[in-house]
Amino acid sequence: VTQGLPADELSLQNASVVMYASRYPLLIDPQGQGRRWLASRTADLGVSVARQSDKHFRQKLEDCLTQGRPLLIENVEEDLDPILDSVFNISQKRDGPNVVVIGEKEVDVAKGFNLYLVTRLVSPNFSPETSAKVTV
Prior knowledge:
Elements: H1 9-20, E1 26-28, H2 33-42, E2 48-50, H3 57-67, E3 70-73, H4 85-90, E4 98-102, E5 105-109, E6 114-119, H5 128-133
Parallel strand pairs: 1-6, 2-3, 3-6
Antiparallel strand pairs: 4-5
């Protein structure tokens, strides 16, 4: 299951979340091992790595959605960018065509898109709303 991750409890939990969660995963990864594992695991799929604070974050998100590539959002803080709300809604209905609204633009979601979020916070205090949107 861990394929290169250490065998500690947090790493095992992160691997399980990535592999079996029905919602998009948010990894608690203070040492960055999970982020490196995830980037390596999705490299063949053309993963794009971004931070919510990046100048071109919205464009990277749109590109991954339309091209069907995974997006790894690193260094997530306790508050998620509201632009992701419509993306979180598609994780519940993976069958059939999906369209999301990013800002004021409708974006088609191509097959193969996936979203991974990683925080370096040791003990994050996510809101109930955030916890309902992702699998921590």
